[in-house]
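Record 1 of the preview.
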Amino acid sequence: MMKNNKILNFSQSALVGFLFLAIFFLSSCASSGGSNVQNASNSDYTASNTVSVISTTPADLATNISVSNPIVVTFSSPIQTSGVQDGINVRVTNDSGGWVPGLITFNATGDQLSWVPSQNSLPVSLDISSHYRVLVQFMTDPLSHTIAPWYFDFNTVKFLNSTGKFHIIYFGKQRQDNGAPLDNSGSSILFSNQAIEAQFSEPVYPNSSVCSTTAWSDSFQVIVGTLGNISGTSGTSCIICRAVFGGSVCDTLRFTPNKAWVNIAASGSLFGAGINATIKKSTGLKGISGEPMQSDQTVTLYGFP
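->
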């Protein structure tokens, strides 16, 4: 009986000790999180490692975040940057939990990570009025100590009105990709099926190349004289990207008709067929900042054979 009592007493003492350690461990975990990020899991955390996430941009639960700014994670000291992969070490998900592909870069000292969304290896923007979660995991310091994973959430901006930030800076005949004139006839003289071009003050959301063909363009409304919309006249609208240092900027919209401008409506004018090209603010065009156009924009051009 004495032996059994000793075993029982030892078991009770061990149980009390275990409960005390468990309470201490839980309280320590609860106090280790920051105000800007949340500790997602400590299951693969190495106790001897002192590297941790100290800040994020955006902050956790931030709202009205620009769709064009990069996501930045700052560590307390340099980490092992080689081998860090998008979708594995840095995983961004959207409202439905779907993975959002992106491009990862590090600063020179290796203690700050930047991420931007991408499409076909080109940087694009996030979606407007959307919720995102960022998970940073499976990373190590230079001594191969595993860094505790972290996640944070934020919501992107929702614009109801335009401030004029997104506006047209050139509207006329198509130019060369470097901005030089296509020919010497001037910006308002269109020959054959030359394109109409509009360049905006910032990249067109979502900063990627895309074309659409419709009976009349969703982005350009072509009006000849006072006849109103031209029924049956089709064309192609394309967002054009140009290469810049570090990526590309998709800030130009081009519309090409399916036939020569002069044949769209024979005005009989010595100056060719008068064409009013209008970009409607109601078409859904938005800048990379998320802002829509503030007002309709119209340019008068003349079509020649």
